[in-house]
Amino acid sequence: MAKRTPTSLKDGKKTNLKSSFNALVYIPRFFKEIWNVNKKIFLLSTFCRLIGALLPVIILWIGKLIIDEIIHQTSIEITDYTQLWTYVGIEFALVILSDLISRAISLTDGLLGDEYNIATSVTIIKKTNQINISLLEDAEFYDKLERARTQTTGRVGLMSNVLGQAQTAISIATLVAGLIYFEPYLIILLVLSIIPSFINEVRFSQQQYSLARSWTSERRELDYLRFIGANDKTAKEIKLFGLTDFIVNRFKNLSQEYYELNKTLAIKRTALGFVFNVLGTLSYYGAYVFIIYRVLSGVITLGELTFLSGSFNRLTKSLQDFFSRFTRISESALYLKDYFDFIDISILSKTKEDVPLPKHIKQGFEFKNVHFSYPDSDHEILKGINFTLKAGEKMAFVGQNGAGKTTLTKLLLRFYEPTSGYILLDGININRFNKAEYQEFFGVIFQDFFRYEFTVKENIAIGNIDELENQTKIETAAELSLADAVIAELKHGYNQQLGKRFSNGQELSGGQWQKVALARAYMKNAEVMILDEPTSALDAKAESDVFGRFIGLTEGKTSIIISHRFSTVRQADRILVLEHGKVLEIGTHKELMQNKTLYSELFSLQAEGYQ
Ligand SMILES: Nc1ncnc2c1ncn2[C@@H]1O[C@H](COP(=O)(O)OP(=O)(O)OP(=O)(O)O)[C@@H](O)[C@H]1O
């Protein structure tokens, strides 16, 4: 398979050091979110870290006092160990406290992380729901969504890192103060030893992020291949068509490329990391020799030697930690940027008006010269559509595959805006109404309705989730859609788990699923009903029954039915025939049969098939 260059690399959208640092501006907003999640735990965690930051220097200082006291006691004749044992006792208590503090920090970080995780997942689900359908079908948007969704653990790690960083910074400040007090020159040695490894860390982590980011869409493809390669829904076709090798090879080629790039980077990072660390160790031993020399010359005590070498050692480690954590923070902050970019996606519609929606439709809908192309496509799907759907009318949309029937309903539902032309409701452009309120007006069952792996009861109540506990309403809806007979056969009736994903789940046939989904339409007393091929999997008898009921029940209601079955279509008040994105004809069954164009031709063809 030909090698590909990741899309974002092709576009030259590489991230650089500057963007890593710029991303740090998101940290205050991030902490504001964490603070809002649980103020008490956040304060507790901060307090523990403050104590944890001061403990190292105190413990080292007590160590110095102990050694100086031992030397003092061995040099005098009348010994008194009270002071010595007191120091040992204090050190012991401090070590215990230190352990307690570090456990408390892990605990609070874990709890806060979990709560933050829940909160962001909810935010992402809600935001996805607010976003225009047109964006949901956009590949670039999916990349953003994937980065926002999958980097949750990264964000929790970032929280610990930033808090840990503050703790290390305080710790470093106290240790540096100790060094300055005794041997200020050691500071220069310390700084020199740490700079190369810092630069190394920053460079590599930025490259790592750049690589991961530029591969977002390829990772999405890898996930997809993993999904179709090992999934109960695709297993039949994969086996039957012998697709395993095809999928495995495609997966391997793509992942191998990423693996190689990542490997090169990781090896370089490790090798250079080692070299720079040796520099750090060298400087430590340089400092150690210097301190020993100072003790031998009698300038400082043995206790001070322990304190200084301990402080220096700890400082080297803390500084290394500090810098490597700093690069990790700026790296994760870039992921944070992805998350905030996602939740900041503007959801403003083109018009800001909020014209009140009529309680009931008086005149109906009117399509006026509506043209439409899907975003980023120059193929015009609808080419100047004009028709009216009167209040209370039942209209059927008919046409060959791809004629634009579903697209027409998507415009009516305001999933998309017409490229030009208008859709009016009682004379008012539908884009002037509040979108959410307007969409509440409709009860819709799509041809690709979703099979929720919930219970039957929940699957039906999805049509009007506020009525989840209204068993009578759910049962009535099931009777009307003929789902009641299906449910009667299920072991747990309305509480039967559907699908195979969860334990005790029961899979349904295509037609049975359709009956359950159809019941959703009856859960809401919607002004306008749209059924987009909801009966394609039903047998002829069931379909006729379902429509008989539907027509009876929606008496006086405005509705649209999309169907390829003319026995159903002919029951509509009027039929709109679409061809290549244009209205070819519109009228009653009788009128269209007399026209002797596409409708009568297709009707006769289907009628022959049934003979
Ligand atoms: N999200 C989309 N982005 C781009 N093109 C699309 C999208 N959805 C549909 N199309 C295209 O729009 C055209 C009309 O599709 P539509 O689903 O409206 O047809 P239809 O009449 O409902 O067909 P069918 O009877 O097969 O359901 C098709 O050519 C299809 O490829």
From TrEMBL:
<feature type="domain" description="ABC transmembrane type-1">
    <location>
        <begin position="43"/>
        <end position="331"/>
    </location>
</feature>
<feature type="transmembrane region" description="Helical">
    <location>
        <begin position="271"/>
        <end position="293"/>
    </location>
</feature>
<keyword id="KW-0547">Nucleotide-binding</keyword>
<keyword id="KW-1133">Transmembrane helix</keyword>
<keyword id="KW-1003">Cell membrane</keyword>
<dbReference type="InterPro" id="IPR027417">
    <property type="entry name" value="P-loop_NTPase"/>
</dbReference>
<protein>
    <submittedName>
        <fullName>ATP-binding cassette subfamily B protein</fullName>
    </submittedName>
</protein>
<dbReference type="InterPro" id="IPR003439">
    <property type="entry name" value="ABC_transporter-like_ATP-bd"/>
</dbReference>
<keyword id="KW-0472">Membrane</keyword>
<dbReference type="GO" id="GO:0005886">
    <property type="term" value="C:plasma membrane"/>
</dbReference>
<dbReference type="GO" id="GO:0005524">
    <property type="term" value="F:ATP binding"/>
</dbReference>
<feature type="transmembrane region" description="Helical">
    <location>
        <begin position="169"/>
        <end position="195"/>
    </location>
</feature>
<keyword id="KW-0812">Transmembrane</keyword>
<keyword id="KW-0813">Transport</keyword>
<feature type="transmembrane region" description="Helical">
    <location>
        <begin position="84"/>
        <end position="105"/>
    </location>
</feature>
<keyword id="KW-0067">ATP-binding</keyword>
<dbReference type="InterPro" id="IPR039421">
    <property type="entry name" value="Type_1_exporter"/>
</dbReference>
<dbReference type="InterPro" id="IPR011527">
    <property type="entry name" value="ABC1_TM_dom"/>
</dbReference>
<dbReference type="InterPro" id="IPR036640">
    <property type="entry name" value="ABC1_TM_sf"/>
</dbReference>
<feature type="domain" description="ABC transporter">
    <location>
        <begin position="365"/>
        <end position="605"/>
    </location>
</feature>
<feature type="transmembrane region" description="Helical">
    <location>
        <begin position="41"/>
        <end position="63"/>
    </location>
</feature>
<dbReference type="GO" id="GO:0016887">
    <property type="term" value="F:ATP hydrolysis activity"/>
</dbReference>
<dbReference type="GO" id="GO:0015421">
    <property type="term" value="F:ABC-type oligopeptide transporter activity"/>
</dbReference>
<dbReference type="InterPro" id="IPR017871">
    <property type="entry name" value="ABC_transporter-like_CS"/>
</dbReference>
<dbReference type="Pfam" id="PF00005">
    <property type="entry name" value="ABC_tran"/>
</dbReference>
<dbReference type="InterPro" id="IPR003593">
    <property type="entry name" value="AAA+_ATPase"/>
</dbReference>
